[in-house]
């Protein structure tokens, strides 16, 4: 019996040792807890690449596609706005990846109170998560819903909104106004939390006070909240207002992450296919004064086949979500809409930018021309200036959508395709895989 | 048997009465006249007539025994493992100097069955298990034991995956109880569960066929195996815990036999025949040229119309259109001659990729021992060149086992199993074309391999894109590439047993398993593989020219995988018989297990096989993709702690109860702690009616009813209620590398464990002293809360999550019959037959919204769905059947003008399908016949599958028949019978364009491959092995100073009877264009022992 007692004793010792025995922390796996771990977690979200700006560029008037070029099938139906039964190879507009990033940001925001570490770092991190989430919803709603119109935003269908992970619930579309409400609320929370004024070069994919104010200016611009847009842009410019002067020899381009203009270098705006297998449309080239506009030579190269190729290549350094030129043009555009005394402010912002874009003589001519424009002429000019400034930077599609929704004509293999003014196809239908997984998503 | 062992411990305590007599003699083997060392000789209890009193002895090294017994003892019982027990009448006789000849047992009732934790006998067991002796199933020229199990055991479905040397057999015990997990059984070697890779589930897939992999049992030499026991029901497997949900296969290896040293030598030569390539029915040159001419004559067929030599000749001479419009006779005579000249070359691709090979296998073993020590040593060499040139396996084995009795109470055992397995194969890239089996099917018969100068002829029809041909030549590829896996394996077991006088036995066993797999894939600069790889490094230069950043030279890829596990098991067992009627056996134990896996994969480019050096890649573009990563390491580690116990009770040898309980704990990182320990339990009972007086008959050996019930669980370790992340390194902006943590899977706090309940009822019937033995089982297994991936709204951040989503039931019966049909001294014929059926049903499964195929709910896991057709219309387009109505493709697929048919919702798409059958055979089993006539023996083993539905890949596609490829002659009949015709986008006939664009591009779910014309129901009986042996008579052998000499001749896989499997080599691999044929071999061997 004594022996049995001994055995029982040995067993119970073994049992208690067991808990430690089974506690193996697998190498390479972690449940994020500290601020450093959550930082790495959020970096993964930043690192999730979305090419929506690339794909929408094919829908604009900035590119020329030809059927004899490679990968033509990938983009043909996007190029001619054929959304019904596109070919099998057609590139799909991103949808799930936005929500993947939103999942990460939701987790950081939801864990805010449990993250351990330096409170300033935590605030900055959670602020970035809010800002990044705002950017995702902003991009989503501008892809898959009608542009913001204060009159109809409450009834216009937007995109599903989620602020915490739940795979079991339904995801109906939220009204555009609701989506914007979340965007603004996220931006405001981010403003309260972010404490890094400007991110250093190489880390400027992360949000900073400068970046969130710039994003806020852009969101208000899209909402046609002109005064708020001006205010936000001015706040941002108080932090950074440098412009790249093209009258000086430059080693980088304005849209590169390491340019003096960079505010947020997160999104990829060009692709290998776009640069190599498509060319810049003659319509876009025609927008530039080839003798006085320094951007013509800076942005484009004329190939031997008489086609223009963009100098903004698909290399990794061309990352641009927001840059200082944006701020100038936002002030110019919003002020122009405010009218009255603000028209001067609008012109001044425009001149300040274009001084760095035109030859000195050209700039004098430019000022003369713009100085004589009325309010309407000025807003049109600003749109053109945006087209020239942000050529192939993924802004054109949204600029067209939110302003004139102009008619676009394209010819492909002798056939003519037209995107009518105010065409329904200025809203992109939800991709097939999104609808299959979420029956509540009714196609646009 | 065990009871006897216990009883013998009691021997010294027995006190004798006054009337005693001396009992003595010798026990010898009936056939070999050798002493049977260790045989028990005892007086039965009723003969002695008192409690707890068995009188007897164990035969010593010379087989002699001697003891004193009561004078009125009438019968003497002699028994030993593997021999038939016999009773010797000693009433009123002189009981000294007895010569007892023992006969090798053919009945299994009293054999010891090793379950890994306990030993029991078939007579006592309450569980469903099946045992087979290695000697009965051994086949020459087979490297691994899994292949030998084909058709041997009821309920154990073994399917060879592929004919390549070293490729595994897929084993399924009692059906599939999972929808996406592994269904492989657990292998246990002498009590140690083996750790290793699961066998891929889909062996029609090219990647799985071409992959060299080592499996845990592939290092074990079949010569070392004594027996195999398969544990099938819950009461047998639950002691093994969660891993045993798919059944357990217990391997018991040979131990040394006490007595003088015995040496056994086997030598074996086997000839692997060249597969019969003509079975594939491919077009020969003449047929192929005519077929290309036919293709060219149809102006509507434009798919790859420039491909094929005929088209090239026509295009070069500018006569393609002339031919299409005016026919062959209108061609210039020189062109006609050039085309006809193609028919002169008729390459037999079968000869190029297949061979007949002569192979060898040798084995040497030594065993022996004295009363305190036994040993077994063996060495083995196995060398098999496959029928496919370049596929080869070589294995070296060393095994050493030693058992010592340290004292009367302590026994120590050591076992070492070491092996090296070298497998080599051809190297194929990521795409299908260059798998030799596939290439031989598609390469043109008029294509030569070398020109008159001896230079390689590259296949002009193996092209990447219309403008890229990377020059493939089978011979060049074989000469300049290699693919080899060297698997070193060491398994060692150390055990210590303590047996106390009062019946308590303590066993502690430590098993170590070390596996090192080193794989090397090399492709020289001049190879298609390298050229193809280089394409991945393509980029455009400043002047839009194509540049490559992969350095010039070869590519070398090394993968080194190290796996280590230890398993430490300690058990306390107490067994006792009380008052002669109550047999109690209690066991409690613990098991600790830890495994570590490390894998390092490295790649080098610009490899020079002479200097063995590589060239670094300097271009930063290489960093973007994973194809040019030069180093990758992965590591994983797991720990398990388990506690278990069993209790069994037998009353009077008639009624038995058995129960077991086990708690399995494992490291579950981030998993809900309430699932840390899984309880697994079972209860079982049996009743031997033959022991009841009302049924007692001397002819009835046993009639036992058995029933068992048990629960097993499993938890998904990859799902956590928390957000778990994986570390990585990424560079968001150039120049700065940062640590990232990427979320691994969706958090899910609601996940429950998968649960399988199993019930089993059965009976075992043995009559006429082992002449007939029948075992029959019915089982019902229900697996609930099976975990599977379910698609979720993308808005959640994921597209799929793991949920408990399915219920699967398996029910079936197993019947095995063993008979001794004739039993004379000179002639003996025995038969064993088994048949089993399994019905699998998915009771509930969540519908996958995005799925093209119908839900399995209400059908088998392996259900096959097809698109029903009903012949062809006048244009050669299949007619379809929906709701009993025959209709055109346009109506069936609801094709509308101006669309390509992809407007079908997934639900409508699913509804197109009809259930046509089950890929699991309705019945499967085997028949073995063994004959012995004087010194000759003949064994014929066969296995069969009845009514199995298989779907092959469509031999050609209606819209994409490529004139540059060869096809089976079926394509010549396209458009007749059931075979769909060839159509182009402007083929004449109504609605062809709609149908064309549907089949050509709209058919996203690839329904064409699912047409019922590709579905067959097959049944077959394969004669696995025919073996004829001749043993020299003991007298002749002793003249040669050896104890046994045996010659044998064996044929494997020589014959298959059954339904048609035209166009494929074997019914087992029917439908796979990539599989290597199962080897047909003839072997001759010699077995010598002295």
TrEMBL record, chain A:
**Which top-rank group of organisms is this from?**
Bacteria
Q: Which UniProt keywords apply?
A: Cell outer membrane, Membrane, Signal
Ranges for the SusD-like N-terminal domain? 44-221
Its protein name is SusD family protein
What's the source species for this entry? Reichenbachiella agariperforans
Subcellular location per the Swiss-Prot or TrEMBL entry: Cell outer membrane
State where it is primarily located.
Answer: membrane
What Gene3D superfamilies does this protein's entry cite?
A: 1.25.40.390
Q: Per its UniProt record, what Pfam families does this chain match?
A: SusD-like_3, SusD_RagB
Q: Which InterPro entries match?
A: SusD-like_N, SusD_RagB_dom, TPR-like_helical_dom_sf
Q: Which residues form the RagB/SusD domain?
A: 298-444
User: Which family is this sequence assigned to?
Assistant: Belongs to the SusD family.
TrEMBL record, chain B:
Name under which the protein is recorded: TonB-linked outer membrane protein, SusC/RagA family
Q: Under the cellular component aspect of Gene Ontology, which terms does the record hold?
A: cell outer membrane
Signal sequence annotation: 1-17
The family database entries (InterPro entries) matched by this protein are listed as: Beta-barrel_TonB_sf, CarboxyPept-like_regulatory, Plug_dom, Plug_dom_sf, TonB-dep_OMP_SusC/RagA, TonB-dep_OMP_SusC/RagA_CS, TonB-dep_rcpt-like
How does this chain sit within the bilayer? Answer: Multi-pass membrane protein
Where, per UniProt, does this protein localize? Cell outer membrane
Q: Where is the TonB-dependent receptor plug domain?
A: 122-248
Q: Does the keyword Transmembrane apply?
A: yes
A Pfam family name for this chain? Plug
Keywords assigned by UniProt?
Cell outer membrane, Membrane, Signal, Transmembrane, Transmembrane beta strand, Transport
| Family under the similarity heading | Belongs to the TonB-dependent receptor family.
């Amino acid at each position: 019996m004594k022996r049995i007692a001994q055995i029982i004793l040995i067993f119970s010792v073994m049992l208690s040792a067991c808990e430690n025995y089974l506690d193996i922390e697998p190498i390479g796996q972690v449940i994020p807890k500290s601020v450093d771990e959550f930082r790495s977690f959020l970096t993964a979200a930043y690192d999730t690449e979305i090419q929506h700006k690339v794909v929408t560029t094919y829908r604009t008037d900035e590119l020329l596609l030809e059927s004899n070029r490679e990968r033509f099938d990938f983009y043909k139906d996007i190029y001619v706005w054929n959304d019904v039964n596109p070919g099998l190879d057609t590139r799909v507009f991103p949808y799930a990846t936005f929500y993947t990033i939103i999942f990460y940001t939701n987790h950081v925001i939801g864990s805010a109170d449990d993250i351990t570490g330096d409170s300033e770092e935590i605030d900055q991190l959670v602020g970035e998560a809010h800002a990044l989430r705002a950017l995702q919803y902003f991009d989503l709603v501008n892809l898959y819903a009608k542009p913001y119109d204060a009159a109809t935003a409450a009834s216009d269908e937007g995109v599903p909104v989620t602020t915490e992970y739940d795979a079991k619930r339904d995801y109906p579309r939220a009204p555009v106004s609701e989506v914007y409400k979340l965007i603004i609320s996220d931006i405001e929370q981010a403003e309260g939390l972010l404490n890094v004024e400007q991110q250093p070069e190489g880390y400027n994919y992360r949000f900073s006070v400068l970046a969130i104010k710039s994003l806020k200016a852009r969101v208000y611009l899209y909402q046609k909240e002109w005064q708020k847009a001006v205010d936000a842009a001015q706040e941002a410019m108080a932090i950074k207002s440098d412009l790249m002067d093209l009258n000086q020899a430059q080693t980088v381009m304005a849209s590169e992450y390491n340019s003096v203009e960079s505010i947020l270098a997160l999104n990829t705006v060009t692709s290998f296919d776009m640069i190599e297998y498509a060319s810049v449309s003659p319509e876009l080239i025609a927008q530039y004064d080839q003798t006085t506009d320094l951007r013509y030579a800076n942005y484009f190269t004329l190939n031997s086949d008489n086609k223009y190729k963009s100098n903004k290549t698909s290399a990794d350094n061309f990352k641009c979500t927001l840059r200082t030129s944006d701020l100038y043009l936002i002030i110019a555009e919003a002020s122009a809409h405010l009218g009255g005394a603000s028209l001067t402010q609008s012109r001044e912002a425009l001149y300040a930018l274009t001084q760095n874009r035109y030859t000195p003589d050209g700039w004098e001519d430019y000022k003369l021309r713009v100085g004589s424009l009325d309010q309407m002429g000025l807003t049109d000019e600003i749109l053109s200036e945006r087209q020239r400034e942000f050529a192939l930077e993924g802004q054109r599609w949204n600029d067209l959508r939110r302003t004139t929704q102009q008619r676009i004509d394209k010819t492909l293999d002798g056939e003519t395709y037209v995107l009518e003014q105010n065409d329904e196809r200025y809203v992109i239908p939800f991709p097939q895989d999104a609808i299959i997984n979420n029956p509540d998503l009714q196609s646009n | 048997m065990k009871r006897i062992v216990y009883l013998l411990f009691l021997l010294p305590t027995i006190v004798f009465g006054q009337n005693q007599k001396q009992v003595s003699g010798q026990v010898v083997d009936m056939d070999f006249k050798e002493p049977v060392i260790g045989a028990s000789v005892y007086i039965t209890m009723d003969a002695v007539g008192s409690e707890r009193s068995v009188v007897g002895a164990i035969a010593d090294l010379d087989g002699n025994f001697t003891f004193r017994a009561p004078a009125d003892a009438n019968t003497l019982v002699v028994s030993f493992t593997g021999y038939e027990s016999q009773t010797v009448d000693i009433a009123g006789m002189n009981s000294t100097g007895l010569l007892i000849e023992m006969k090798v047992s053919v009945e299994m009732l009293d054999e010891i069955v090793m379950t890994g934790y306990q030993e029991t006998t078939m007579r006592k067991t309450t569980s469903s298990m099946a045992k087979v002796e290695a000697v009965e199933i051994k086949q020459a020229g087979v490297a691994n034991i899994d292949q030998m199990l084909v058709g041997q055991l009821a309920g154990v479905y073994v399917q060879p995956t592929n004919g390549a040397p070293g490729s595994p057999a897929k084993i399924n015990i009692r059906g599939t109880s999972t929808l996406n997990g592994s269904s492989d059984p657990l292998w246990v070697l002498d009590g140690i569960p083996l750790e290793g890779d699961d066998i891929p589930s889909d062996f029609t897939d090219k990647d799985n066929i071409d992959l060299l992999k080592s499996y845990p049992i592939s290092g074990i030499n079949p010569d070392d195996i004594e027996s195999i026991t398969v544990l099938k029901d819950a009461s047998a497997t639950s002691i093994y815990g969660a891993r045993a949900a798919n059944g357990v296969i217990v391997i018991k290896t040979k131990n040394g036999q006490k007595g003088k040293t015995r040496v056994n030598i086997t030598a074996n030569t086997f000839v692997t025949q060249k597969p019969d390539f003509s079975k594939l029915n491919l077009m020969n040159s003449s047929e192929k040229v005519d077929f290309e001419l036919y293709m060219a004559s149809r102006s509507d067929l434009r798919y790859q119309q420039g491909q094929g030599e005929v088209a090239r000749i026509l295009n070069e001479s500018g006569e393609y259109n002339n031919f299409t419009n005016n026919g062959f006779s209108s061609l210039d005579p020189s062109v006609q001659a050039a085309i006809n000249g193609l028919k002169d070359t008729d390459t037999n691709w079968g000869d190029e990729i297949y061979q007949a090979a002569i192979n060898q296998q040798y084995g040497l073993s030594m065993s022996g021992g004295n009363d305190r020590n036994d040993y077994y040593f063996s060495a083995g060499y196995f060398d098999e060149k496959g029928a496919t040139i370049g596929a080869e396996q070589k294995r070296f084995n060393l095994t050493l086992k030693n058992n010592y009795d340290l004292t009367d109470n302590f026994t120590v055992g050591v076992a070492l199993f070491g092996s090296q397995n070298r497998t080599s194969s051809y190297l194929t890239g990521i795409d299908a074309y260059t798998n030799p089996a596939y290439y031989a099917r598609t390469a043109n018969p008029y294509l030569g391999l070398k020109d008159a100068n001896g230079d390689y002829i590259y296949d002009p029809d193996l092209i990447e894109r219309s403008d890229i041909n990377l020059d493939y030549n089978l011979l060049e590829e074989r000469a300049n590439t290699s693919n080899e896996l060297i698997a070193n394996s060491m398994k060692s077991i150390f055990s210590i047993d303590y047996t106390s006088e009062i019946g308590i036995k303590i066993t502690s066993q430590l098993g170590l398993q070390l596996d090192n797999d080193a794989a090397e894939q090399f492709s020289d600069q001049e190879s298609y593989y390298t050229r193809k790889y280089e394409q991945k490094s393509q980029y455009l230069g400043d002047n839009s020219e194509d540049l490559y950043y992969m350095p010039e030279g070869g590519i070398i890829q090394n993968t080194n995988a190290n796996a280590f596990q230890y398993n430490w098991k300690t058990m306390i067992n107490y067994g006792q018989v009380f008052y002669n009627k109550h047999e109690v056996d209690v066991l409690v134990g613990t098991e600790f297990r830890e495994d570590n896996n490390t894998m390092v994969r490295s790649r080098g480019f610009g490899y020079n096989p002479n200097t063995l050096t590589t060239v670094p890649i300097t271009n930063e573009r290489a960093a973007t993709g994973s194809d040019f990563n030069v180093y990758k390491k992965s590591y994983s580690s797991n720990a398990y702690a388990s506690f278990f116990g069993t209790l069994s009770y037998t009353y009077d040898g008639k009624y038995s109860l058995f129960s077991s309980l086990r708690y399995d704990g494992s490291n579950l990182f981030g998993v809900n702690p309430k699932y840390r320990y899984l309880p697994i339990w079972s209860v079982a009972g049996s009743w031997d009616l033959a022991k009841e007086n009302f049924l007692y008959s001397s002819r009835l050996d046993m009639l036992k009813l058995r029933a068992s019930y048990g629960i097993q669980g499993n938890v998904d370790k990859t799902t956590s209620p928390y957000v778990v992340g994986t570390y990585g390194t990424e560079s968001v902006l150039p120049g700065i590398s940062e640590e990232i943590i990427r979320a691994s899977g969706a958090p899910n706090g609601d996940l429950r464990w998968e649960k399988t309940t199993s019930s089993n009822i059965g009976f075992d019937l043995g009559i006429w002293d082992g002449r007939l033995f029948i075992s029959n089982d019915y089982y019902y297994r229900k697996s609930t809360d099976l975990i599977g991936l379910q698609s979720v709204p993308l808005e959640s951040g994921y597209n799929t999550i793991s949920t408990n989503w399915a219920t699967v039931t398996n029910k079936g019966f197993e019947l095995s019959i063993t008979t001794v049909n004739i039993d004379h001294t000179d002639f003996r014929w025995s038969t064993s037959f088994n048949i089993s059926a399994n019905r699998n049903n998915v009771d509930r499964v969540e519908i996958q919204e995005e799925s093209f195929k119908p839900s399995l709910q209400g059908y088998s896991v392996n259900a096959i769905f097809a698109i029903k057709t009903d012949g062809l219309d006048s244009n050669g387009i299949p007619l379809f059947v929906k709701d009993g109505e025959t209709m055109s493709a346009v109506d069936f697929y609801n094709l509308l003008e101006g669309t390509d048919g992809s407007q079908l919702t997934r639900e409508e798409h699913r509804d197109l399908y009809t259930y046509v059958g089950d890929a699991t055979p309705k019945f499967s089993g085997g028949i073995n016949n063994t004959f012995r006539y004087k010194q000759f023996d003949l064994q014929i083993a066969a296995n069969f599958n009845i009514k199995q539905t298989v779907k092959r890949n469509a031999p050609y596609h209606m819209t994409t028949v490529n004139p540059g490829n060869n096809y089976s002659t079926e394509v010549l009949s396209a458009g007749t019978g059931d075979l769909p015709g060839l159509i182009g986008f402007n083929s004449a006939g109504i609605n062809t364009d709609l149908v064309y664009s549907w089949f050509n591009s709209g058919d996203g779910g690839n329904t064409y491959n699912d047409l019922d014309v590709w579905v067959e129901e097959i049944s077959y009986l394969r004669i696995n092995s025919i073996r004829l042996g001749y043993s020299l008579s003991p007298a002749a052998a002793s003249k040669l100073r050896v104890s046994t000499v045996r010659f044998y001749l064996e044929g494997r896989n020589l014959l298959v009877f059954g339904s048609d499997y035209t166009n494929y080599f074997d019914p087992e691999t029917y439908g796979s264009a990539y599989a290597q044929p199962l080897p047909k071999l003839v072997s001759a061997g010699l077995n010598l022992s002295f």
